[in-house]
C-alpha cells in the first residue's frame, strides 16, 4: 500500500463531458465513512466541476457489493466508488468481511465492465482510520476520486481503439 497519494489527474476530453459517478457508502463507522465521502466528493469536483455524483447508503460494508451491483444494473453511471470502514477486532470476522467485499466488488466490476473503486478499508484501530479517512497525506477518499477518473480515461481510450460491432 502506498504511503503517498497519486497525483491529481488532469481533466481531459477522454473522459465524458459530464461524468456520472455513484458513491456507495457504509452507514457503519459514520464518523470515518462520512469523512471519506466528503473528501471523495471534494476531489471529484476539483477534477471535474460538472461531474454528477449520487450517493447511496449500505447498512454495512458487507452489503456494499449488492448495492453496487444494483446501481450498475441501472446503467446510469460511468463508475462506482465503494467507501466503508471495517475495524479489526479480536476475531477474524473483520478479515472475512473484508475479503468477501473485495472479492465481490472485483467480480461485479469484471462482469459488468464498470470501474468500481474499492476503498472499503480494513484498519487496525481508530488512529489508522483517522489517518486514512481524515488525513491529508494518505486520504483514501482523495485517492478513490483520482482512481475513478484514471479508470474512466483508461476505459475511454480502450473503447476508442476497439472496432465497433
Structure description:
With 165 residues, this protein is α/β, with parallel strands linked by helices. It has a single domain, classed as Lumazine/riboflavin synthase (Rossmann fold, 3-Layer(aba) Sandwich), CATH 3.40.50. It is 48% helix and 19% strand. The chain has a 4-stranded parallel beta sheet, sandwiched between helices. Helix 1 packs across helix 5 and helix 2 runs parallel beside helix 3. The radius of gyration is 16 Å and the shape is globular. The chain starts with 19 loop residues before the first strand and ends with a helix. The model has no long low-confidence stretch (mean pLDDT 92).
Briefly, what is this?
The chain has 165 residues and is α/β, with parallel strands linked by helices.
How many structural domains in the coordinates? 1
Strand order across the largest sheet: 2-1-3-4
| Helix-strand makeup class | alpha/beta
Query: pLDDT below 50 for ≥5 consecutive residues: which ranges?
Result: none
Q: What is the CATH class designation?
A: Alpha Beta
Quick one: how many beta strands?
Answer: 4
Mean pLDDT across all amino acids = 92
Give the distance, in angstroms, between the N- and C-terminal Cα atoms. Answer: 39 Å
Amino acid at each position: 500500500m502506498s504511503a503517498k497519494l497519486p497525483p491529481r489527474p488532469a481533466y481531459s476530453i477522454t473522459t465524458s463531458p459530464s461524468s456520472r459517478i455513484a458513491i456507495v457508502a457504509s452507514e457503519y463507522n459514520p464518523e470515518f465513512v462520512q469523512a471519506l465521502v466528503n473528501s471523495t466528493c471534494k476531489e471529484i469536483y476539483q477534477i471535474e466541476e460538472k461531474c454528477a455524483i449520487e450517493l447511496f447508503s449500505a447498512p454495512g460494508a458487507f452489503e456494499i457489493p449488492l448495492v453496487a451491483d444494483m446501481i450498475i444494473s441501472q446503467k446510469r453511471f460511468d463508475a462506482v466508488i465503494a467507501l466503508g470502514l471495517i475495524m479489526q477486532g479480536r476475531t477474524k470476522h473483520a478479515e472475512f468481511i473484508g475479503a468477501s467485499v473485495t472479492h465481490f466488488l472485483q467480480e461485479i466490476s469484471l462482469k459488468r465492465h464498470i470501474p468500481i473503486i474499492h476503498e472499503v478499508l480494513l484498519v487496525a484501530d481508530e488512529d489508522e482510520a483517522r489517518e486514512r479517512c481524515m488525513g491529508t497525506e494518505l486520504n483514501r477518499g482523495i485517492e478513490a476520486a483520482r482512481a475513478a477518473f484514471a479508470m474512466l480515461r483508461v476505459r475511454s481510450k480502450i473503447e476508442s481503439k476497439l472496432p465497433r460491432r
